[in-house]
Amino acid sequence: MPTAYAPAHTGRNRARSPYMEWAKCHPRVAHNLAASGMPAYTLAHFVAAGWVRLEDLELSGSDGYGYPPLQRAIADKAGVSPDWVVAATGCSMANQLAMAAAFEPGDEVLIEQPTYELLVTTAEYLGAKVRRFVRRFEEGFRLDPQEVAQAITADTRLIVITNLHNPSSALTDDETLAAVGEIARSAGARVLVDEIYLETQYSTPWRSSIHLGDHFIVTTSLTKAYGLSGLRCGWILAQPELARAMWHINDLHGVNAAYPAELLSVIAMRHLREIGEPYEKRLATNRQIAYRWLDERTEMRVARPPIGTTLFPKLWGDNSEAFCNLLRDKYEVGVVPGRFFESPAHFRMFLGAETPVFTEALARIGAALDHQ
Ligand SMILES: Cc1ncc(COP(=O)(O)O)c(C=O)c1O
User: Fold this and answer.
1) What is the distance between the alpha carbons of residues 340 and 348, in angstroms, rounded to a whole number?
2) How far is the CA of 23 from the centre of ligand 1 (A)?
3) Mutation test residue for ligand 1: of 21, 162, 196, 200, the one with most atoms within 8 Å of CB
4) For residue 344, what are the contacts with CB-CB under 8 A and spacing of at least 6?
5) Residue list, ligand 1 pocket, CB within 6 Å
6) 29 vs 32: CA distance, rounded Å
7) Rounded-to-integer distance, Cα 203 and Cα 249, Å
8) Each residue of 162-185: pLDDT tens digit?
9) Phi-psi region of 219 (alpha: psi -120 to 50; beta: other; left: phi over 0)
């Protein structure tokens, strides 16, 4: 299935992401449900909790392949040894390094549809021939190994999945991922699982899919679940030889990570429970409010995942764009138009806004629907 995006590789120097440009430039409104990461956790919180003092910070310090205390903290969290960990500038760079090491230009890469657009544009930028397999709205966007089996070819080198799924937040269990892993293994391909939203399991114990086999690669960051986008603390988990290849590719992108961010990331890793707790509560509250509200709204249908930061409702018509514009211009509510996820009848809405703002946003979306 061809991608619906404008081709990124009309030349590497012209690569661009329509979604990222929109995300950075769209007009901000009072009731913003266009985000997907929890609102920023602040440095003031770190200081007030007594986790850090100014004299503990330094500007320069680490100069090797990863800051050892951070490597260890990530490895402990994931249950792997540090040679399986590649620190990266956010999950964005993690995805870029993982892809760059996992295939050569001209190789085939099989990516779920719909998905986070940057996964497609990054694969194309790196010279992949991108093929797609479908995750169906009618099936709650579940990952169906049959769809993967039908789309994979002998030339496929990498299968790319988000878990939780962006945009729908659908959760894929280990059994299904293992089935996809088997399909990949028999074709000589690897599986890249972007687990950035799986971090919103917070206090529920969960295992990364890196434990499903050496041919799995996992990327994630502290951005979405913990409101720590500013630290750019992302990483890749991969089999050590492949991990070393990623470190070497990373040398081309930057000599060091920002040391103050590494120091603060180590501190954050020690306190993820405390940082995540209020976010976990807020998401649970808002999800309940959203699901009660959705019970009353017949104008849209939506998969109802148990966790995650976003929902991906489908309106009855073919195209949500005019509705998204109306929400923005008349009702001061921001949502992400579904076209950015190759699903024009949908829109993506964020569950992590402060509860009063979230409740007001739902009331406004309801008013907009009533006046359609
Ligand atoms: C699936 C997915 N991966 C990666 C990213 C980028 O993460 P980061 O901000 O840590 O670079 C996003 C951001 O929206 C995302 O949705």
Assistant:
1) 9
2) 12
3) 196
4) 318, 319, 320, 321, 337, 338
5) 36, 90-92, 116, 162, 166, 194, 196, 221, 223, 229, 234
6) 6
7) 34
8) 999 999 999 999 999 999 999 999
9) beta
Which ranges of 29-127 does DSSP label H, i.e. alpha helix? 43-48, 68-78, 90-102, 117-125
Taking the centre of ligand 1 as the mean of its atom positions, its distance from the CA of residue 241, in whole angstroms, is 25
Asked if 235 and 219 touch (Cβ cutoff 8 Å), the reply is yes
**Measured in angstroms, how far is the CA atom of residue 245 from the centroid of ligand 1?**
22
Which regions of the chain does DSSP assign to beta strands (E)?
Answer: 31-32, 85-89, 108-113, 129-134, 156-162, 190-194, 216-221, 233-237, 300-301, 310-311, 314-315, 333-334, 336-337, 347-350
Index of the ligand 1 atom closest to the CA of residue 229: 9
Position of tokens 């993506």?
348
Q: What's the whole-model pTM score? A: 0.96
Domains of the chain are 12-41+273-370 (3.90.1150.10), 60-271 (3.40.640.10)
| Inter-residue contact 351 to 311 (CB < 8 Å) | yes
Mind listing the pLDDT tens digit for each residue in 91-139? 999 999 999 999 999 999 999 999 999 999 999 999 999 999 999 999 9
Q: Give yes or no for a contact between 297 and 366, defined as CB atoms under 8 angstroms apart.
A: yes
DSSP conformation letters of 142-198: ---HHHHHHH--TTEEEEEEESSPTTT-----HHHHHHHHHHHHHHT-EEEEE-TTG
E strand or H helix at 368: helix 355-370
